Recover the amino acids of this structure.
């Protein structure tokens, strides 16, 4: 990894990003902003996108702002508090207020509808001159030569290949990683309902609160409710014991019915159950726990986002970590470092793995702990008065740790 003393000036290179999710688009935008030539290949046609909410904490939104993504256009809601409610009657048990959040961390904590954010990121990418090619599923990678082959028989060559192809990554398999997984004891239904429909049906209106609201969460059962899309959509994540279904395949997109959704929750707050009769786009999300992978990079190939570190959704950090990964790659391959402290793609990717793997793994593990213990959830974890019964051996993940991280300083310690 030791470099020669040649001082090359900044030379942009060709990047092929596999997967046009939030992570792939973030990488494309961030690298393109430094002048690299970027093409994103996506297997689908984006015709059948499923709805869901995503939250992005300050250190993710900081980059969205820096990259010029239109947050207003993405119809973001600012998270103002966490609310903990009684499982059976919905009464408020505890509130964690974020009123000093922006002052403290410099940017907001946002809730987005995934599709709104995705759309704005596509717009930004296209404006910057990123080439997005749909209906191209990568099936084979030659990591040494930098060649990607697609299922339609065509192939392309790039200096750098980024595997941003999600939790069931093909690029990951192609660089020789076989995920070690265990079934999660929980499964999740997610669904949405338009606020207007809630009003029309005269059901209880949760859209007033710009909050992440939790029912349960001290065991497997947990319902998470958020508003997004300028408060026009209410989104639900409903966790219940995996034993209730016989799915074995990991995935986001298994259709389900309202009857299936209500079955695991007979004693839940009747207001929520009433809404569950009318929700739309109910999907079963089969959760799987991945052990951290042995490596993330090989030759000219790097993994990013869910392809590198799939995490349970319980810290709401999946998208934020994908955005940080993208920012890290762009920093390493920026005019400030590329050709100066970073001499080859391979060297840059080694730095990327060193920079990102420990932090992402820590958050991946904390997300798994928070699956069945709301006290591990950032926000609640910093609130002492509700920590009682558990004897926690591992330090909890805190808001400070998520938001007070300084990537540039960290990279400088690795370069020196
Ligand atoms: C349909 C969908 C729904 C989601 N819903 C939620 C949700 O409700 N809550 C939540 O927290 N997170 C959700 N996520 C995941 C969330 O977006 C990610 O955790 C986070 O944004 C990191 O994303 P990523 O870009 O790494 O992966 P992803 O968002 O999974 O994006 C991967 C992209 O790669 C494409 N792809 C896969 N294989 C190939 C291939 N071989 N060749 C080319 N392209 C390929 C996929 O079609 C997809 O567009 C969802 C993801 C998807 C795709
Ligand atoms: C989701 O599943 C439906 C069929 O149930 C399918 O038509 C659609 O293409 C899938 N969408 C995604 C994003 O995978
Ligand atoms: C929740 O509400 C139920 C019914 O009103 C009540 O019996 C129970 O004690 C409450 N639980 C907590 C933890 O406050
Ligand atoms: C494969 O994709 C290329 C590039 O978009 C396209 O030109 C070609 O027609 C496709 N080939 C087949 C066999 O579908
Ligand atoms: C729902 O929320 C709106 C917006 O704050 C509020 O004005 C309205 O009274 C609420 N509607 C119902 C049916 O509770
Ligand atoms: C990685 C990163 O950019 N971290 C920043 C997160 O936010 C805090 C507070 O604004 C900054 O000090 C960090 O540099």
């Amino acid at each position: 990894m030791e470099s020669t003393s040649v001082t090359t000036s900044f030379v942009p290179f060709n990047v092929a990003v596999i997967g046009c999710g939030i992570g792939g688009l973030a990488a494309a935008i961030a690298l393109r902003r430094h002048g690299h030539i970027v093409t994103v290949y996506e297997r689908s046609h984006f015709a059948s996108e499923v709805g869901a909410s995503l939250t992005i904490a300050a250190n993710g939104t900081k980059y969205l702002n820096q990259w010029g993504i239109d947050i207003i256009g993405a119809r973001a809601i600012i998270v103002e508090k966490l609310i903990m409610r009684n499982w059976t009657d919905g009464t408020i048990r505890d509130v964690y207020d974020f009123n000093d959040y922006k002052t403290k961390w410099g940017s907001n904590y946002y809730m987005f509808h995934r599709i709104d954010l995705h759309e704005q990121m596509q717009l930004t990418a296209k404006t910057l001159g990123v080439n997005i090619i749909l209906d191209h599923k990568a099936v084979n990678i030659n990591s040494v030569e930098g060649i990607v082959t697609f299922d339609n028989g065509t192939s392309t060559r790039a200096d750098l290949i980024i595997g941003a192809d999600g939790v069931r990554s093909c690029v990951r398999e192609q660089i020789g990683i076989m995920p070690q997984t265990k079934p999660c004891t929980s499964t999740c239904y997610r669904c949405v309902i338009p606020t207007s429909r809630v009003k029309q049906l005269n059901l209880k209106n949760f859209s007033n609160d710009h909050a992440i609201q939790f029912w349960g969460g001290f065991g497997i059962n947990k319902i998470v409710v958020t508003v997004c899309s300028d408060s026009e959509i209410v989104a639900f994540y409903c966790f219940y014991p995996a034993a209730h279904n016989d799915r074995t395949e990991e995935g986001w997109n298994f259709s389900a019915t309202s009857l299936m959704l209500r079955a695991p929750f007979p004693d839940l707050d009747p207001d929520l159950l009433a809404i569950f009769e009318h929700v739309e786009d109910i999907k079963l999300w089969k959760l799987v726990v991945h052990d951290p992978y042995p490596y993330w990079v090989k030759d000219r190939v790097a993994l990013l986002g869910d392809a590198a570190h799939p995490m349970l959704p319980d810290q709401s950090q999946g998208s934020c970590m994908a955005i940080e990964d993208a920012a890290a790659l762009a920093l390493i391959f920026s005019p400030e470092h590329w050709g100066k402290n970073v001499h080859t793609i391979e060297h840059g990717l080694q730095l990327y793995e060193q920079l990102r793997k420990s932090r992402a793994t820590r958050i991946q593990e904390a997300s798994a702990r928070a699956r069945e213990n709301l006290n591990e959830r950032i926000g609640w974890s910093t609130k002492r008065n509700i920590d009682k019964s558990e004897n926690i051996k591992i330090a909890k993940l805190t808001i400070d740790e998520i938001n007070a991280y300084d990537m540039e300083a960290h990279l400088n310690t690795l370069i020196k």
